[in-house]
Predict the structure.
Amino acid sequence: MVYFEEVRRHIRIDAAHVYGGLLATLTALYEYHQIPYEGIPVGTIKKKMTGKGNASKEEIIKVVCAKGHASCDDNEADALATLHVMKGKEIRHVN
């Protein structure tokens, strides 16, 4: 099973195009190889980790480090936060 951050809104048009292309490529790859996958909304990850759906990158890093990880940057912290959220499996997506 592959889990990834599902970004529902990009402020910058270029970022939206890049994310759309990445999502299309990953979806095609997973479907072709019959790999199960699920996008988890960023707000859901933030809410489950910090109690706030609009938590800052620094807040996510702090919570991930408190769980025993020496997170190097916000990207690694985001990946570890997604892992922690999905280990619980009982999530409800936040809009």
